[in-house]
Structures are given as C-alpha cells and as structure tokens.
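Problem statement: downstream parser choked on a complex file, so we are re-checking the raw output for the LBFN2T5F run. The parser issue turned out to be on our end (a line-ending mismatch), but while we're here, posting the original submission so the record is complete.
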Amino acid sequence: MRFEKWQALGNDYLIFEEVELSPNTVQRLCDPHFGPGADGVLVLTKPDEPGYVARLRIFNPDGSEAELSGNGAREAILYLRRHWTDADTFSIQTLAGEIRPTILSPTTCRVDMGRASLTSPNYPDGPPDGTGEVAGYRFQHVAIGNPQCAIRVQDPDALDLQAIGPQIERSALFPNRTNVSFWKEVAPDTIRARIFERGVGETLSSGTGASGAAVAHVVRGGDSPVTVQLDGGELVVDVDESLHVDLTGWAEPIYAAQLSEEFLAGGLGGGSPPEDLKQHMEAE
Ligand SMILES: N[C@@H](CCC[C@H](N)C(=O)O)C(=O)O
C-alpha cells in the first residue's frame, strides 16, 4: 500500500488514498518505532458530493478522528495539486465542512478556514464570549473546525506542556476534549505560541492551534494578519471582523513509500492481519 509522508512546520502526516483505516492501524502507523511515525494520518477519497476535488479525513495518533487540521489540510491540498488536479483553487470536503484553498506555489497555499466562533457545543457551558478558567489558567475557547483552548501566558517557553496539557485536553469543561495553545504577544501583529494537541500531545506546530491563538489575540484588540511563531516555523493568520480565518503557510513532502508485507500482516507477533489492511493485501 503506497503512502507519502509530508510535514508542515514539523507537523508530520502520512497521506493515504482510498483506504478505510481502523483506529488500531492508525495507532500503529503513527508509532515511530513500530510504524513510520507521524502526528497523524490523512486519508483522501473521492468526494461524495459534486463540486469537490476530494474528501479529507484526519486521524490523530490515538486513533480518534479530528474534524480539521490546518497543517494537515495544507499537506493534503498540496498533495492533491501534485497528484489529482491542475486547478489552483478548489474545494475539499472535511468533517468541519468545505475548505477552500488557493495554491500560491508548489509548497505554499492559503486556506479559507471558514468563520471561527467563540461558542460551540464543544464548550457547552461557556459564556457568550467563550472565556473561562481551566487548571488555574484563563482561556479563550475558539471553534475553528475543531475545539481550541487558547491560553495567554507570560512566557510559553517556560511551560512544561507534557505536564499541563493532558488535564486541560481532558477537562470536564470540554466533552469532546480540546486542543490547547499557549501564546503571548510579541508585537501587535505577532504572537508566539506553543501547542498541545488533542489525541497527539505536544507538537511543533498546528494550523488550527495557530488560528485559535490568533483569533484570541485579535479578540483582545491585536492586529490582523497575525504572524504566529511556532516551534516549527511561522504561519500567517488573517482574522477579519466577523472572525473569518485565512491561514497561509508551507508544507512539503518527505518521501513516498510502500507499507511492507510484514506491517500489513499485523507486525511480527501481531497474529492475523487486521481486517482493514487484509483487503489491501488481497488487492495488491
Ligand atoms: N495538527 C493540527 C490539528 C490536528 C487535529 C487535532 N489534533 C484535533 O484533534 O482536533 C493542525 O495543524 O491544525
């Protein structure tokens, strides 16, 4: 089974076409020792409605499915531009709805992420301004396809995210768990952010996490477009008065590869091949 590994600011994904993957297979694929290793898996299939180039599904390393990923979407979009379409603007389907990219170069695109909201069913008891307190931190809830908890701190670099992140991700305030960003203002149009992702842990960057932090910054009076400085590089997030978000940044392929027969068979000592991969072994 062929796949490509891509990364965007160090947020790495494996891209597959036309497969159904079980949560267990996603976990094995994302494992850096027993599999290729990644921050997630992207699956591209033919769209099930007219007007779209493809349908994109996004999976976290714990096997859960995410509604949206900003970095993952750019990786999938630039992959589609190389393999599926000649168009520079098109639409893809995601669980978060339609996503519309504009290709700027073979490794850069701007993505219309839709309108962010400060209230959502992912923070059901939140006030109309989406603020709250969790684990001793004031936060801003932002729904930008997926749930974001943006926390303004004095110094994101002084924090131990592995120690703080899990209790926020799994707080009872957020019934579907949450992604978390810790950010500070560097200049009126620039913020520094570190990321703790739902279903992943600390990552070098996140497109939706950067968008959540940028929205929180603009809501507090910051300037847009916002340059977000992440561990893996910089993203530019445009946030207009209606909280409509456009995300611009790069993504690049690392390699294309085939899963080995041993992996498809479940790994040594793994018993019989998992049902999802068995079909592909039979087809190949
Ligand atoms: N890497 C991401 C977000 C991926 C999904 C997230 N972990 C979730 O569960 O919502 C990005 O670049 O946005």
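For whoever reads this later: Residues 2-112+252-283 form a domain with the Diaminopimelate Epimerase; Chain A, domain 1 fold (CATH 3.10.310.10).
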